[in-house]
From TrEMBL:
It is an enzyme of class 2 (transferase). Keywords: Allosteric enzyme, ATP-binding, Cytoplasm, Glycolysis, Kinase, Magnesium, Metal-binding, Nucleotide-binding, Transferase. The active site is at residue 127. Its EC number is 2.7.1.11. It is found in: Cytoplasm. Allosterically activated by ADP and other diphosphonucleosides, and allosterically inhibited by phosphoenolpyruvate. This is ATP-dependent 6-phosphofructokinase. It catalyses: beta-D-fructose 6-phosphate + ATP = beta-D-fructose 1,6-bisphosphate + ADP + H(+). It comes from Paludifilum halophilum. Pfam families: PFK. Residues 3-275 form the Phosphofructokinase domain. Its cofactor is Mg(2+). One of its GO terms (cellular component) is 6-phosphofructokinase complex.
Amino acid sequence: MKRIAVLTSGGDAPGMNAAIRSVVRKGHHHGLEVVGVRRGYNGLIQGDFIPMELGTVGDIIHRGGTVLYSARSEIFKTSEGQDKAVENLRKWKIDGLVVIGGDGSFRGAQKLTKRGFPAVGVPGTIDNDIPGTDFTIGFDTAVNTVIECIDRIRDTATSHERTYIVEVMGRNAGDIAVWAGLADGAESILIPEAPYQMNEIVDRLARGSKRGKKHSIIIVAEGVGSGVDIGRQIKEMTGAETRVTVLGHIQRGGSPTASDRVLASRMGAKAVDLLLEEQSDQMVAIRRNEVIGVDFDEAFGMKHQPDMSIYDLAEILAI
Ligand code: F6P
């Protein structure tokens, strides 16, 4: 293996730059040339490649977003798109590819390995929804962003003695809601992975207000539905003054936390190791704080579940 490439794909996540830096520097450490592919799989198809010297990844470890840009590519889903991508990789004499992204991006990487081109995945998404790994790059930062926002909401919620519904991202996964919910002492956490009863949520609000609570926070994962709808229902059922905040893409930006920078650095380096060991068709994962390689097929066969012990504890503590 002499030359490897790296791209970022799907929704960006804080820490992707730290992962790119790690791939580039670890690659150079082993005497490899490293090429960056811009705009994800679209860049593979369009041949949008740039050489990545050591200096090209200076001053990016602390930056959110991705210096390689990202995209969700429709054209790469076609057989012609995949053929063109492999053709360009071969034209550039690239021997292996690191794909930093989510589940969909890994399925794309596997299309390449099925065509005989070595590719490995590095899990980068704020959603933490990739089966086979305990954590993904960007999740910790997103949770910290959410709690910082909710801390601010708390101030005004207390002043006005209101109930706040905060809708958070996560696509079909409730991880951000669960972690932010425990970290912020939310009254209720609504996630797609657990059933909920509006009556119970309303009862809990009533218990809190009887105890003299000045405000309430309810976190709704976007996979459950619209926070605005939930807010309307709660207002109708309680008559309490209710406000809804949809945090949206704020959760995707910002400087990565120390935890995400370390995770990204470890995972990027492991991806290079996997390619050097000819362990393609794998994704990097972290399990019990060990960074390992996991076959794509094994990961695709698993189902992601948020850590429900955290959800259960949050429920107990919000009594
Ligand atoms: O996958 C990351 C994510 O931010 C999800 O939480 C969200 O559902 C989705 O991407 C939003 O996608 P887009 O940036 O395309 O609107």
